[in-house]
Amino acid sequence: MLHNLRSLRRGVFDLFINFYKLATTVHGAAWTAANKPINLFLNEADPDIRNVQTKVWRDNMVSQLNTILITTSLISSVVVSSLSWADFGSDNEGEITVVKSLWYGSLVLSITAIASASQQLVCLNRLSTYIDGLSLLRKLLSGTEDVTAGTVTPGRSLRVEQAYLWQIPVMLMNGGLYVFTIGLCVFVIDKAQRLLQQQYLKGVEMMVLFAIILLFGLFNYAVSSVALYLWIDRCTPP
Q1: pTM of the predicted structure, to 2 decimals
Q2: Quick check: helix, strand or coil at residue 167?
Q3: Residue 61 pLDDT greater than 60, yes or no
Q4: From what superkingdom does this record's organism come (predicted)?
Q5: Residue 180 belongs to what domain range?
């Protein structure tokens, strides 16, 4: 039985490693898909089209940040509710300590995502109050100013720190969700191990059902992410 439990733990670990590799690829494609439109309007020669594209990006970013605020608030509620479960057991138990640490970490990431998204919303709203707010936004993104009408600075591109900055809220949101899911897996494995010692068949049933549901959820999440971001990355102009 001990050998089976070790094999099970190893299998779960390998599953998360493979998921991490896939998530890294998908998130890299998501970064590219998010940054391409910015580089396009930064290098648009027509000032009217440039302003329209900048405004579209700003409005879409506001909508994205509002979505992140709602989603991370829901994640935080789920984490807090999970931490109030009565059958957590003693804090002296190693697995339970790991679960609580992961869930507290998930809560911190979610709260930080809310704070950073709110801060960026305030920044965008304040820039919008200026007459030349769109030009200031492009200067913020690229570090260079708009020049005479009909021209742009050659090779103007999104600054690396700005590319990272505008991805912070969604990264923190995803991080909080991933950490919570990992903690949930550890929690279920710990409960299944205890159940295996008392009622072996019920413990196996619990693990099998949870594994099927987990794999189904991860598979569909991966498929939806790959279908969206990798397709956008490959089919849009560089």
Answers
A1: 0.77
A2: coil
A3: yes
A4: Eukaryota
A5: 2-235
